[in-house]
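Hi R.,

Here's the chain you asked about this morning:
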Amino acid sequence: MSLGFRPLGHVMEILESVGLPVSYSYEDLVFVENNSLLVQFNDANEKQLLLYFNNDLDGNVAKEIELILMDAALDKGFQFVNSGKYKIRQKDEAKEELELIFLN
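And the predicted structure, written out as tokens:
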């Protein structure tokens, strides 16, 4: 199965245009603003981006960020889809491994 093109540069432009810096990207995930939210690429539709908010982020703040990002994405021909929440926990202290848990 071919992964195809993931528009990381375009996503970074959208996020940074609204003051949300990219902290880290790994495979199909882009961690934003020190783990406040993450974006997951949708390999079935490169113009659709899945948006997840950290479980610890205040719901009102998340909604405000979501609305701002939706407008910014449309200006660049992309669409964010609120896909739920996530949390990160330490999986193995000895190996310093983290586990990403989606809370849909």
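The chain has a mean pLDDT of 91.

Let me know if you need anything else.
M.
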